[in-house]
Amino acid sequence: MDRKADGMDSRYWLQSVIVSALKIGISKKELFEDYYFDELSIIFSEYCKFAKGADKTVEVEEVSGSDFFGF
């Protein structure tokens, strides 16, 4: 019996995470090298809010490069 990788098949949970990351602009390499697994659910949740327009009052603050990087 050949099963396709869908959301209902728990054998493919990692592939689902990779696809979700790719959809929001995180490459597979970045996913495995630059992110902690615990923070991914927060990132996906915040992206979902942003994509749905729930957070329309986003405040943008401009800072200099030295302030941003802590120099």
Keywords:
mainly alpha, 55% helix, 0% strand
Q: Report the uncertain regions.
A: none
* Anisotropy-based shape: flat
Largest sheet: none
Rg result? 17 Å
Please bin the fraction of helical residues.
40-55%
> How many beta-strand segments?
0
Kindly report the average pLDDT value.
Answer: 80
Percentage beta strand: under 5%
Count of all domains = 1
Q: What is the helix tally? A: 4
Sketch the topology as an H/E string, one letter per element.
HHHH
Could you say which structural class the secondary elements and strand pairing correspond to? mainly alpha
Distance between the termini: 59 Å
Question: Can you walk me through this structure?
Answer:
The chain has 71 residues and is mainly α. The protein has one domain (10-69). Helix content is 55%, strand content 0%. The chain is built from 4 helices and no strands. The chain has helices at residues 13-23, 28-34, 37-52, 65-69. It starts with 12 loop residues before the first helix and ends with a helix.
Short synopsis of the structure:
The protein has 71 residues and is mainly α. The protein has four helices and no strands.
